[in-house]
Amino acid sequence: MKITPSLFHAHIKCPTKCWLRFTGEPATGNPYAEWGQRQNDSYRDTAIERLRSEVPQDKCAIAPAQESLKTSKWRLGFDIAVATSKNLETSLQAVERVAPEGRGKSARLIPIRFVFTNKLGKDEKLLLGFDAIVLSEILGREVSLGKIIHGDNHATLKVKASALTGEVRKRLDRIAILLSNPAPPDLVLNRHCAECEFQARCRKLAVEKDDLSLLAGMKEDERKEYNSKGIFTVTQLSYTFRPRRRPKKLRDKKEKHHHSLKALAIREKKIYIVGSPELHIEGMPVYLDVEGLPDHDFYYLLGVRIGNGESAVKHSLWADSVEDEGKIWREFLGILETVEKPVLIHYGSYETTFLHRMCARFGGPLGNAAGVARAIEHPVNLLSTIYAQVYFPTFSNGLKEIAGALGFKWSEADASGSRSVIWRHSWNGSRDPAMKEKLITYNAEDCEALGLVERTVSRLADRNVRPDAVETKETGVVRTDDLKHPLVNKWREFSSPLSELEFVTNAAHWDYQRDRIYVRSSKQLKRARRKAKATPKSVWRVDKVIKEHASTKCPRCQRKGSKHKTVRSRIVQEVVFGRFSVKRRIIRYEYQPYWCSKCKATFGVDDRLLRPGKRRKYGTSLLAYFFYHVIELGIPMHVAAQSLSRLFGLALNTGTFAFLKDRMADYYSQTHQQILKRITSGNLVHADETHANIKGKSAYVWVFTNIHEVAYLYSDSREGELAQTTLRGFNGVLVSDFYAVYDSFDCPQQKCLIHLVRDLNGAMLDNPYDEEMKHIVTSFGQLLKTIVEDVDRRGLKRRFLRKHGVAVTRFYREVVVRDYHSPAALTCVERFEKNRDKLFTFLDYDGIPWNNNNAEHAIKAFARLRDVIGGSSTEKGIREYLILLSVCQTCKYMGVDFLDFLRSGEKDIHAFAESRGNRRRRPRATPLTGLPVEPQSVISGIPG
To answer: Which stretches does DSSP call E strand in 695-740?
Structure first.
């Protein structure tokens, strides 16, 4: 089994092609592959003659023996057949011999390859690397340099062959394994098929197998994922499509391409439409198709079609050489200037690149041609509209396939972009008018096909056009919005184009029938309805009167004031907590205002309490009781309000909700700032983030916490600017997940090992037969188990944990740095290396956890509140919720009862916790402000 450059190059493109060449499978023929081989052979012969003419004939050697490579004195050798003991064999196209630089040193041999293209890819460099490895094994020393002579100007590219050695040897190992297997590899179609001599053979087999690789847009990873689920054919894939309603938060984002829907369109031979494709052509459509030689960055033919039908105007702008490129560009601009409101329509990114390059090379339209400039700056790429929204029954979204499905036919049956390259090169050599006419015809037909596809998509995008009015060659049209959802909600909102049906449905509602129909025939319902209407408005009865005693001295001049007007009062709705009960109380607070004749100031009244227009009628305990239900218990505000209304007769409306929440958040904003300051000034911060919904708009909530405090912050995006601003100056240890934003923080970091364990376990389950991956995960699991056992036994203390640093070093030395080959193992090793200094930081510090559970637990609390809010809150409302939630979770982390803290009127949670710990009696708080005051005198004899 000899591995040759032909097999090596074939394996780069496709393992199946390599295996077929090795087994001697007869080629089915491919014009482009044959033409490329002829071009390479011709270029090689020409380049060899050119090199020979530059060197004396006695310094050249044709087909020298392999044994003479070490001892010969020639400067250039050509067509040198060499083979190694490791079954590697090649024919070196050319070898340059460089004289030794000193006595006792050997001459350097530099392999040379010839490539006819002007642009080089990695494939050509790998082939040169293959030659260098073969040559180095024969010489017994490293060949570190090679050359590639390529292009029309015979440019020379020096390649560092030693840098390619590792990748070339890996490919050689794969080829050896492939060729040692008598069975062929799994058939997979790819982009190289258009240039492969086995194209027809593989395509036929793929169609017979209904292979998933027939879907041109499917990536290798996606295909493997489907295979792991037992899906191997296009037909199987087609049965997995499920119509789903697009979430509101994703409606402004680009639609995702569904391979299953593409498969369904092929199976059903129908066109499927997702959502509402938008294709607004406001002006005269100008269809553009460009032919060029990508290898030369040369555009030689512009096809322009203005309008549709028999009245369409066609232009074909031809360039004989690169010098004519600017001429056809100016002609193109001139044509556009004659069109009123031109709209350029093209297919794919090739024309987009063409427009940018031509404007850069030769300039754009003149300043007075605003319509032309607008058309060039904003062309319509029809493919971007079709992708992910219009699914034709074709294996790809290529113009040839889609137009062919709509009934269009080209005059040349084998017309394609690769064939046009052959035709142009043939014209360059022969100047045959027939070849030029063939190219112009092919380009004009592309424009005509583009027009057909554009008209079809425009009609498909218009919901007012009946599906059978679309040009689809007996192909049906289906909108996924009209498909029956597998889980249809029985109680969904009914809508119909017929107003009569909507009227009948609305008349069947339960409350409508009970209040308008059943009440006419039921005496019991009549009495209940009459009683409900006759219920008088509740009248508040004052349960307690409290008189506030204020100082009669002026706070400015300390002069005794005189009574000002009458006693003022404020009625407050409050609840009183007993040991096992909650009662409603209505309290009237009376205040005597005083007036200073010198300062002309009124005092003796808390201005915040009696300010006109402010609804200061709810006491602290009532607010505490209400927000305890909303924030900690996760009960929606309107449900909590219903409970207050039913149990205590307190009526709260939507406006009151917002006012109370704003009042509470303002009162505890200072507490929130204290919490955040304590967190950022400590030696440990846990950080995490999650998404939020602001009336359909995406936003994010960040959480920062340590062992005792939790702070939530709102952000418009997931970018790390907020986190960096918050943690500026933080010098402790940051515990986080593997989100890349955290890597920019300049402080010691501990990555959450639970996240890593979950990812490793998932990778091992996805690759159950990967022994390399299993070895890595097993070793890491054993190491982490030993450390966690020590943590459970002794706690997070550095003096007990730092000894495990030796085991960590051993793990990296013996497990991580090994030579792995499987993709999963290589990805795992790369992750370990990247985060080497962030995985075991907790071993070197006291009190640093090895996971991010503190932050994740806080995130769960917001997730529960997020479900309660349901996306109905504004940005201001979310910020208020986060302040209260920060207080609630900090109380929970510190073992403080959230309800008791709210009732206390305290703002410092630590001070409240200490007072509870010392069991110190706290002064009673006023129901209005929550501020501690002395007990007031009750001047009413009302019981209770």
So the answer is: 697-705, 710-715, 733-736
